[in-house]
Amino acid sequence: MAFKTVLATIGATHAQQDIDRAIAIAIELDAHLSFLVLGSAVPPFNADYPFTAVWIDDRQEKTAALLSVQEKAAQACRTNGISFDISHRCEDRFVIEHDIALRAMYVDVVLMGIGVRKDIDLREAVISAAVFDTRTPLIILPEGSNANLRPKNVCVAWNSRVEAVSAVRASMDLLKDADEVHLTLVDPNFAHYGNGGEPGADIAAFLSRHGVDVVIEQVASGGRPTEDVLRQHVTEIGCDMIVMGSYGHSRLRERIFGGVTAAILEDCPVPVLMAR
Asked: Which of 8, 90, 141, 249 has the fewest CB atoms within 10 Å, measured from its CB?
């Protein structure tokens, strides 16, 4: 599908870079840009101090910072002449997650800026709301990189699971417009119930029928973590986006043990489109 409505989630930190990149993406796509400026707040019954002027002052200070970011973003949108709406939320993680989910139901893609990605509570709220609650494609923007949603060289991290299929379908328009699509399997399993006798051949055939120019690449890990192999591979072949399914294990297991998704969230040199 074409991305015509973009929800950009940004925080109080790294705000200018996140604003600039979201606007650039909206202009590139000729899309409506919906900004949601987020700040995590400790509810009074969980705070380390009583519900007094100290707590109120802290909440007001955080809200003021978000309002400042909101005004900067609004002014930048007006200057660039793009269609936009904007709001802010300074609440605890679960209230924020609910609000993001309400917004994510009516957009084509959610952007996670650097400020949100570096705040654990905000990051988990955005992932839960977009990836799990509304199944809206999520794009994680890297630090120090010019991001765009018209990549020319894409790496699809393939493992023959439903989550990966969802990511491929969510990114089909991007894949069709790309010059190169590298279908990458790390240590493929040739068993029938693994990746099959010809790992990657089935999804490659599916993509080719949609006009995607795809190359299957089977990569040996040599005992290294899958996420390290993927990061090195995309750097070597010059990819400008990774497409991957999110959280192959249960959410609880991922939270305890980590995994490829969690590791890629922490550090990746290019934008990552995740779906489930």
From this structure: 249
